[in-house]
Design brief:
Elements: E1 2-6, H1 11-23, E2 28-33, E3 53-57, H2 63-72, E4 77-80, H3 87-92, H4 94-114, E5 119-125, H5 149-168, E6 172-177, E7 179-181, H6 190-200, E8 204-207, E9 213-218, H7 219-232, E10 238-241, E11 246-248, H8 249-260, E12 267-270, H9 285-291, H10 299-312, H11 314-322, H12 325-333
The protein binds nicotinamide-adenine-dinucleotide (NAD) and 2'deoxy-thymidine-5'-diphospho-alpha-D-glucose.
């Protein structure tokens, strides 16, 4: 199988490429990525000489280039991970989210249609469902009610994917996963930001009262779910992905502080995120019963392994924090 993976130089895409190259020695992976601030080829250094792996730098809004690559490599499946992915950035700069997440997805769908690609898998998010109260879960039937420019751009993309199935009969799937954690996550997201700041003795900024709940899944378990959807997903279906690991942000930050032996005084409550969703929680019954997916990690083992990874790979995140990322970081939190 020849798989066109977009956004493969980012956090989840690079973990997925590692997973697939390990598991399928006969598959070819074409990684198509624009290398924005979040794309980092260091994430894939160990596979760059693998004959089954090809990297192409490009934008998912560039129809001609994508069409050329899809034809050249005889692509069977497109998996679209490429996106602007950070909610805070979408609040200050929504336009690029619409361009990449909505227009980029439509361009990919068009190229897939023209080239009669066998399957198109859209990597979406639980955030398209909006926010939950203290009880209940997101199912595939929960209405879309996105609240941030990021999640709304992802919801727009999901509706286009649905439209290409309904209108043109394309074989598509949409996956909606909860919050991922694991190696190679860009240190603007909660877990790597708190782990690396704690190691550097910097402040740990918790938004609002810290009681917002996220449902955490190890990125390798997300990869195994996407693998199953590629091979067994039924045309036009949506699959929610999550492992029932709900934690408040307060719990996450305190756990990290404890595990690293950092002083609690680093924790600082800061102004809340605008439109901050209170709680996400996935009901993964459909993918578990229909496709036989089962997560491998418990949160306890996953977070322990992840913290160790950031301890052992300090060059990786220090290079990011010392580079262009720092400007953004300082604008948000000041020079702390
Ligand atoms: P990320 O920000 O780490 O990586 C995104 C990648 O997309 C980067 O490599 C970037 O260079 C690339 N990219 C951005 N714009 C592009 C463009 N115009 N053309 C080509 N490439 C472009 O994101 P992530 O956390 O790995 O998320 C990957 C996907 O999974 C996204 O679609 C996101 O919405 C979805 N998702 C993320 C999570 C999570 O917890 N991180 C959970 C559920 C779903
Ligand atoms: O639910 C899936 C989504 O998870 C993905 O679609 C997004 O791409 C991904 O970024 C993530 O979105 P969140 O907004 O949930 O993740 P983030 O790591 O930005 O924040 C997690 C929680 O932590 C959220 O409630 C905001 C809070 N937070 C975050 C940061 C960066 C803080 O309290 N302080 C912080 O400094």
């Amino acid at each position: 199988m020849n798989i066109f993976v977009t956004g493969g130089a980012g956090f989840i895409g690079s973990n997925f490429i590692h997973y697939m190259l390990d598991k399928y020695p006969n598959y070819k992976i074409i990684n198509y990525d624009l290398l924005t601030y979040a794309g980092n080829l260091e994430n894939l250094k160990d596979v760059e000489d693998n004959p089954n792996y090809v990297f192409v730098k490009g934008d998912i809004t560039n129809r001609e280039l994508i069409d050329h690559i899809v034809k050249t490599h005889n692509i069977d499946v497109i998996v679209n991970f490429a996106a602007e992915s950070h909610v805070d950035r979408s609040i200050t700069q929504p336009d690029v989210f619409v361009k990449t997440n909505v227009l980029g997805t439509q361009v990919l769908l068009d190229v897939a249609k023209e080239n009669k690609i066998e399957k198109f898998v859209q990597i979406s998010t639980d955030e398209v469902y909006g926010t939950l109260g203290e009880t209940g879960y997101f199912t595939e039937e929960t209405p879309l009610a996105s609240n941030s420019p990021y999640s709304s751009s992802k919801a727009g993309a999901d509706l286009l994917v649905r439209a290409y199935h309904e209108t043109y009969g394309m074989n598509v799937n949409i996956t909606r996963c909860s919050n991922n954690y694991g190696p190679y996550q860009f240190p603007e997201k909660l877990i790597p930001l708190m782990v690396t700041n704690a190691m550097e003795g910097k402040e740990l900024p918790i938004y609002g009262d810290g009681k917002n709940v996220r449902d955490w899944l190890h990125v390798k378990d997300h990869s195994s779910a996407v693998d199953l959807v590629i091979h067994k997903g039924k045309p036009g279906e949506v699959y929610n992905i999550g492992g029932h690991n709900e934690r408040t942000n307060n719990e996450i930050v305190h756990l990290i502080v404890e595990k690293l032996g950092a002083p609690k005084s680093l924790i600082k409550y800061v102004e809340d995120r605008l439109g901050h969703d209170r709680r996400y929680a996935i009901d993964p019954t459909k993918i578990m019963t229909e496709l036989g997916w089962k997560p491998e990690y418990t949160f306890d083992t996953g977070i322990e392994e992840t913290i160790q990874w950031y301890i052992q790979n300090q060059d990786w995140w220090k290079n990011i924090k010392n580079g262009s990322y720092i400007e953004y970081y300082e604008k948000l939190y000041g020079d702390k």
